[in-house]
Task: structure prediction
Amino acid sequence: MDQMKTGRFIAQCRKEQGLTQFRLGEMLGVTDRAVSKWERGLSLPDASIMQDLEMKRREEEKNRQMLRMSNVIGFMSGALFLVGVISLAKAGRFEGVQLVHRHGQPPTVEFVVATIGALAGLFYAGEIERKAGYYHCQECGHDYVCSTGEYFNGPHFGRTRYMKCPHCGKKSWMKKVLVKDD
Result:
């Protein structure tokens, strides 16, 4: 195994996660000097640590893929809803932001189907996002997967949600993280 290449990889991953050598060492149960030696290619981590690092890397990649899939499904759901609105407008039953029932005609079938499909897609995308990774409590540092109700009912901005931590019971803005902070 190429120690220099492995060291560069460890340094790159650590920096991408915004970790110091001290914090990474603390997470792995080693000193910051050991992490420094790994990154400079002077030594390699123990096999058990390498296995832990590889498992975390795989979990992170799986969660990244799930979040990308969630984005694609969400985008497609929005596009589907837009198609429904366009079909409604072409049918002459849409004025401004209000549905107009001319001559007692209900919305077009395309609009209803598109709306139901879009809502189902958005729900599915939300469930994928909810299960991908963890929410990190700013108060106690606990990482957890929230319930469906918490996910859909909590105020949010992007992938940050205002929720109550099941560990400490405090409410805070919790950011999505891809792997647990052991």
